[in-house]
Amino acid sequence: AIGDSILAWHKWTGRDIPSVMGALLGARVENDAVAGARFSNTSGFGRAAGFDVRAQFRPGPWDIVLINGGANDLLSDCRCRACDAVLDALIAPDLGGEVATFLAEVLASRVEVIWMGFYASARSGLFSGGRRFLMLYDARLARLAAQTPGLTFLDSEAAVDRRDRSHFAIDGIHPSPTGAQRIGTYLAQSVGR
Question: pTM, whole model, 2 decimals?
């Protein structure tokens, strides 16, 4: 698994989304997601420390690579206001962009890729105003997956309810252990199908 804090949350306790998914599938999991990771983090330190989602990926004997990310790009680069240029750089309306290019590189290593879409959180906090752009982002990624063999888009919003605070950590954004369990279960069941 590679991505940002949504996948990294609870990693050190083994209750993170990828670990839940792996336990249900009976699979060994490596979670290299890092809180704060972005797609556009090109600084030497950022890449070395895993803050660039692309740098988290390493070819290996993986069957599935679970990926998320992009919200921190929107937060950092446009503060969730007038984010059209940032969104288009990640994935444009024509489905080009740095995320699409990266996904093609991962798929070239002959793995199945699952892109986990973002859910609506209980409270937006720093991401206030960004929901519209995250929805557009997810819609474009879902379109890309529909036409790309080996790429599956799964919307984590199908597993959590923004009105149920038990699904969220105290910050109202990241998943609680319950939320991570629900999302990991949903992803595992989707793979099982």
Answer: 0.92
